């Protein structure tokens, strides 16, 4: 599937509502993410209101398949946040196409590094349920997926694990920090 990637500003009100639905449904397995009333709609709205935030949608005809956002957190590093693909069309290349589009846009803006946090809030890796202190960084080498955690998706696309935030979402529920260099090495 080769979707058409478009800036968020061009979405119709119906597609914007779909962006919130996809955000809610793609994260339905994560107890802490966008499940409350209006949370997904509020998150989508930030990408229209906050100048540090931009997003792109993936369309098949008029149908929104997924979307990706970024936050201009540093002068030369942007956070990739969030990335969601409609559960009914996952594993068909939409997520990879969105990441590729964002990387191209970021590189064109002189960004050197894209980074992201991918929570393990549901037992998707072998770090779930563990106390990661002491020697948090030492736990990175043994990190492995147990139930299709998206860190494996990002690793396929060239992102490497650069850190762990222990207990980010409660005891034993870490965030996994990943980053990719966009510019050629010095
Ligand atoms: C993670 C997500 C964005 C991936 O999008 P997608 O459209 O399903 O992924 P793609 O089809 O583009 O996958 C690209 C490659 O990664 C692989 N892949 C996708 N998801 C994977 C996973 N969870 N684990 C391992 N590999 C994965 C695909 O098999 C494909 O490999 P290939 O190039 O060898 O065929 C999507 O599954 C999603 O929305 N998940 C729920 C929300 C989420 O977790 N977002 C990320 C939070 S940080």
Secondary structure layout:
Elements: E1 4-7, H1 13-26, H2 39-49, E2 53-60, E3 63-71, E4 77-85, H3 94-108, E5 113-119, H4 151-156, E6 160-165, E7 175-181
Parallel strand pairs: 4-5
Antiparallel strand pairs: 1-2, 2-3, 3-4, 5-7, 6-7
This protein binds coenzyme A.
Coenzyme A (COA) binds at residues 26-27, 83-85, 90-96, 116, 118, 148, 150, 152-153, 156.
Describe what you observe in this structure.
This protein has 186 residues and is of the alpha+beta class. The chain has a single domain (4-181), classed as Gcn5-related N-acetyltransferase (GNAT) (Aminopeptidase, 3-Layer(aba) Sandwich), CATH 3.40.630. 25% of the residues lie in helices and 27% in strands. The chain has helices at 13-26, 39-49, 94-108, 151-156; strands at 4-7, 53-60, 63-71, 77-85, 113-119, 160-165, 175-181. Strands 1-2-3-4-5-7-6 form a 7-stranded mixed sheet, sandwiched between helices. Helix 1 (13-26) crosses helix 2 (39-49). The model has no long low-confidence stretch (mean pLDDT 96). Coenzyme A binds next to strand 4, helix 3, strand 5 and helix 4.
């Amino acid at each position: 599937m080769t979707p058409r990637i478009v800036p968020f500003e061009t979405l119709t009100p119906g597609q914007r509502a779909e962006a919130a639905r996809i955000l809610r449904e793609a994260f339905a397995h994560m107890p802490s993410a966008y499940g409350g009333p209006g949370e997904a709609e509020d998150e989508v709205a930030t990408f229209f209101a906050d100048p540090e935030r931009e997003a792109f949608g993936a369309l098949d005809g008029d149908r929104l398949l997924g979307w990706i956002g970024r936050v201009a957190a540093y002068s030369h590093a942007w956070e990739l946040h969030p990335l969601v693909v409609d559960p009914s069309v996952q594993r068909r290349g939409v997520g990879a196409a969105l990441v590729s589009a964002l990387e191209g846009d970021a590189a064109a803006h002189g960004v050197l590094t894209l980074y992201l946090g991918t929570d393990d809030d549901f037992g998707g890796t072998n770090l779930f349920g563990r106390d990661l202190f002491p020697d948090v960084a030492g736990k990175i080498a043994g990190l492995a997926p147990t139930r299709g955690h998206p860190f494996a998706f990002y690793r396929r696309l060239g992102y490497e694990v650069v850190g762990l935030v222990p207990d980010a979402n409660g005891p034993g529920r870490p965030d996994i920090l990943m980053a990719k260099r966009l510019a050629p090495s010095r």
